[in-house]
Write a structure and sequence with these properties.
Dihydrodipicolinate Reductase, domain 2, 6-stranded parallel β-sheet, 9-stranded mixed β-sheet, 12 helices, alpha/beta, globular, Rossmann fold
C-alpha cells in the first residue's frame, strides 16, 4: 500500500478551517503534516482542532522541516505568487487560491515553472463544481441552446455595503476589487460556457462611500466595488459580466448568481440565491417561456439539497471535488482542471479589464485558451 500524500497548508483563515481542513482530514490517503500562518496561536489552534502534525508561523521553515509532497496556498493574495513559486521549485504539487499572482507575467512564470516540474496544480474556481452550474454546462455542451449567441453572467453580493473598511476593496491588497474577488469566478465560468475570449471592454468603478482610513489610520486607495464587462468570444458570441460587492440581495448570504445562455435553438438560465434556490430553467425555440428543468439525481449525487450552503459544504467536504479531486489526481498521476494555466488566463482577462476601464478602449486578448 502506497504511503499517504504529505500535504501542508499555508493560511489559517476561516476558509481553510471550513473547506480545506475538513475535506483533507477525511481522506485516508492524506497526511496533514503542517499548517502555517502569520499568528502562531491561530496555526496552533487549527493544528489541534484538525489533528495536523505541526504548526508554524514561518511558511519557508515549514517547507524546510516537513518537506511536504503537496501544498495548499490559501494565504493573503500578496503571498500567492512567492509561496507557489517556491513550492513549484521544490517539486511540490500545488493548489493555489486565486488570484495566483499580481501580474500576468508572474502568472505565466508559475505556469511555466509548473510545467517544467511536471506537477499537478489546481486553482479552485469553486462555483464550477456546484450541481446547478454543472447541469447548465452539460445542457449547453449537449446542444440544448444550439449555437451560442450570448452568455450573461451576474454575480451580485452585498458584503461591501455595511463594512466601512475591507481589504478586498483596498487597492493595495486587491487592485481589481470586486472583479478580482468575485468576478474572476464568473470569468472562468464564462470561458467554460462560451470558449476562448478574444476581446474585453470594461468599466470598473467605486460607487459606495467607504472609510478613508484603514484600521491603522492610514489613507488607502479604493479598489472598484463594481464592474461591468463585455466579452467577445472567438465563436462570435457575445457575453456580459456584472460583478458587484454593493448589491443588496436580502438572502442569508446577501448574494445571488444568475447565468443565462442564449442560442439559436433556445435559452438556459441558472440561478442561485445562496439560501434555498439553486435551479436551472430553459426553453427551446417555439416552446414558450423558460420553465424549470430538474437537476438530475446523478449530478446531485449524495450531497444535501435543502439549502445551498449545505450543498456547498457537502460538495467540497465529501465528494471528489476541489481539494479532494486534486489529491486524487496527484495519486493517479493525471492532469486536473482548473489548473494554474486557467488561473493565468483569468488573470490575463482581469488585467485587460483594468486597462480597458482606464483607457475606455476595447482590449484584444492575445493569448487564449482555457
Amino acid at each position: 500500500m502506497a504511503p499517504p500524500l504529505k500535504v501542508a497548508i499555508v493560511g489559517t483563515s476561516w476558509w481553510v478551517d471550513s473547506m480545506y481542513l475538513p475535506a483533507l482530514s477525511g481522506m485516508d490517503s492524506v497526511e496533514l503534516v503542517a499548517v502555517a500562518g502569520r499568528r502562531m496561536e491561530k496555526a496552533d489552534e487549527l493544528a489541534r482542532a484538525w489533528s495536523v502534525a505541526a504548526a508554524f508561523d514561518d511558511w519557508q521553515r515549514m517547507l524546510d522541516e516537513t518537506e511536504p509532497d503537496a501544498l495548499v496556498v490559501a494565504a493573503p493574495n500578496s503571498m500567492h505568487y512567492p509561496v507557489t513559486l517556491e513550492a513549484l521549485r521544490r517539486g511540490m504539487h500545488v493548489l493555489c487560491e486565486k488570484p495566483i499572482a499580481t501580474t500576468v507575467s508572474e502568472a505565466d512564470h508559475l505556469v511555466a515553472t509548473a510545467k517544467a516540474a511536471s506537477v499537478v496544480t489546481m486553482v479552485p474556481f469553486t462555483y464550477s463544481y456546484m450541481p446547478g452550474f454543472r447541469f447548465l454546462e452539460q445542457l449547453t455542451t449537449s446542444g440544448y441552446v444550439g449555437a451560442i449567441h450570448h452568455v450573461g453572467l451576474r454575480y451580485h453580493a452585498g458584503y461591501g455595503i455595511a463594512d466601512p473598511y475591507l481589504w478586498k476593496l483596498d487597492a493595495r491588497h486587491n487592485p481589481s476589487g470586486a472583479l478580482g474577488d468575485i468576478g474572476s469566478h464568473f470569468l472562468y465560468l464564462g470561458l467554460r460556457l462560451g470558449g476562448d475570449v478574444v476581446s474585453v471592454t470594461a468599466r470598473l468603478g467605486t460607487v459606495s462611500r467607504r472609510a478613508q482610513l484603514d484600521p491603522r489610520g492610514e489613507e488607502y486607495p479604493l479598489a472598484p466595488d463594481t464592474a461591468s464587462v463585455i466579452l467577445e468570444f472567438e465563436s462570435g458570441a457575445m457575453g456580459t459580466l456584472t460583478a458587484s460587492a454593493v448589491a443588496y440581495e436580502g438572502t442569508s448570504m446577501n448574494q445571488r448568481h444568475v447565468i443565462e445562455v442564449h442560442g439559436d435553438a433556445g435559452t438556459l438560465r441558472y440561478e442561485c440565491d445562496w439560501d434555498f434556490t439553486q435551479s436551472v430553467s430553459g426553453a427551446r425555440v417555439g416552446d414558450g417561456p423558460v420553465r424549470p428543468i430538474a437537476i438530475p439525481d446523478e449530478i446531485w449525487g449524495s450531497v444535501r439539497r435543502d439549502t445551498v450552503h449545505n450543498t456547498y459544504r457537502d460538495v467540497f467536504r465529501t465528494t471528489d471535488a476541489m481539494a479532494r479531486g486534486w489529491v486524487s489526481a496527484i495519486l493517479a498521476g493525471r492532469h486536473i482542471r482548473p489548473d494554474l494555466a486557467d488561473g493565468a488566463q483569468v488573470q490575463r482577462l482581469i488585467e485587460l479589464c483594468l486597462e480597458s476601464s482606464v483607457s475606455g478602449e476595447r482590449k484584444a486578448v492575445k493569448s487564449r485558451g482555457v
